[in-house]
């Protein structure tokens, strides 16, 4: 499992929002909007700094220590300003050790020019996610991963129609009901990244899940791991033309067979660990020439491994542990010269393991 988590770490980091260095707000640019300045100071004063680690940040920093009355907020850590108006358009407080209740009428919601908001890896003490999140209509990127929010995700989040990236993962028992899901997917039609790991989505029906097909022209990254999804996963999602990463890890009642054709050919990562996906692994998997990580352990796959799989020469991670696969492991395994992780255990394979491991540069 450590290898699996490490393999996904680079992609989790891609979802963090970048902070423009303070040097961009030089003396020739407008000063921070005075109302935004005041609202940020009020926001700062509502939290304590609590030294802790959750394992998701490579480092922690008290960014709001630089937020001082009488100074220009465009020069504060984590703050990005519009170069024309001086309004705050970006706020990156990820890994900032903030601790305390997130007030439903926080002055943060007065920053209506915000385009990027990253509050990942803080501790907001099981606060509900305020309905006023829907006031931030300019948002294109919202990251609340591992931030300690709790309860039902408000329907007003669907007002954020400009969203390109949404990450609500690992936030202490957030729940997404079908009504909010339907509105959110219906209004945010340009999403490129959607990450809802460990959000309770147990009320979402198969027909509503199919609404993800609305993103056929945009979706690159979809992670719905450990969300209590059930029923049949819509096969069309595996055919989204631009999809590069799909993770459905540990949805034990989520069923599907892999498609016999029409895969998303840019797919680089497919993680179905611990789902009820079943049937044979089709020959069509050999069309995924960009596939880098294939994780199918503890599913219900049976039959032979198709010969086409051994032509996926970009694979670095291959895990079939705990299925009902059988047959012999061919010497074609030697084609996968970039492998760093291989697990074929707890299946019904027969014959000898081919003597190919000297061909691998790393194993």
UniProtKB/TrEMBL annotation:
It comes from the Eukaryota. InterPro entries: Leu-rich_rpt, Leu-rich_rpt_4, LRR_dom_sf, LRR_N_plant-typ, RLP23-like. Residues 36-82 form the Leucine-rich repeat-containing N-terminal plant-type domain. Residues 1-25 form the signal peptide. Pfam families: LRR_1 (PF00560), LRR_4 (PF12799), LRRNT_2 (PF08263). It is a single-pass type I membrane protein. It is found in: Membrane. Keywords: Glycoprotein, Leucine-rich repeat, Membrane, Receptor, Repeat, Signal, Transmembrane, Transmembrane helix. Gene3D superfamilies: Ribonuclease Inhibitor. This is Leucine-rich repeat-containing N-terminal plant-type domain-containing protein. It comes from Stylosanthes scabra.
């Amino acid at each position: 499992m450590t290898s699996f988590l490490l393999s996904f770490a680079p992609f989790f980091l891609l979802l963090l929002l970048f902070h423009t260095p303070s040097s961009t707000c030089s003396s020739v640019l407008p000063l921070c909007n005075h109302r935004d300045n005041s609202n940020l100071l009020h926001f700062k004063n509502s939290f304590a700094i609590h030294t802790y680690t959750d394992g998701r940040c490579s480092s922690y920093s008290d960014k709001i220590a630089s937020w001082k009355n009488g100074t220009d907020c465009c020069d504060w850590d984590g703050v990005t300003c519009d170069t024309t108006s001086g309004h705050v358009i970006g706020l990156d407080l990820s890994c900032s050790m903030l601790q305390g209740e997130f007030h439903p009428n926080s002055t943060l919601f007065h920053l209506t020019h915000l385009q990027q908001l990253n509050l990942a890896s803080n501790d907001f003490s099981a606060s509900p996610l305020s309905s006023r999140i829907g006031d931030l209509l300019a948002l294109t990127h919202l990251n609340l991963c591992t931030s300690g929010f709790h309860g039902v995700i408000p329907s007003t989040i669907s007002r954020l129609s400009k969203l390109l990236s949404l990450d609500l993962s690992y936030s202490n028992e957030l729940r997404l009901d079908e009504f909010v899901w339907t509105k959110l997917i219906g209004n945010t039609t340009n999403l490129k990244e959607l990450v809802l790991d460990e959000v309770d989505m147990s009320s979402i029906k198969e027909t509503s899940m199919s609404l993800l097909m609305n993103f056929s022209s945009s979706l690159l990254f979809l992670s719905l791991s450990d969300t209590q999804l059930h029923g049949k996963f819509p096969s069309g999602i595996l055919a989204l033309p631009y999809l590069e990463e799909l993770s459905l890890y540990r949805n034990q009642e989520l069923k599907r067979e892999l498609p016999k054709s029409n895969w998303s050919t840019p797919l680089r990562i497919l993680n179905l660990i611990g789902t009820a996906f079943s049937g044979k692994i089709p020959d069509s998997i050999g069309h995924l020439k960009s596939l880098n990580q294939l994780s199918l352990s503890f599913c219900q796959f049976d039959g032979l491994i198709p010969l086409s799989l051994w032509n996926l020469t970009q694979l670095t991670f291959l895990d079939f542990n705990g299925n009902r696969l059988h047959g012999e492991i061919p010497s074609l395994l030697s084609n996968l010269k970039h492998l760093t992780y291989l697990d074929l255990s707890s299946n019904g394979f027969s014959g000898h393991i081919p003597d190919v491991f000297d061909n691998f540069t790393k194993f």
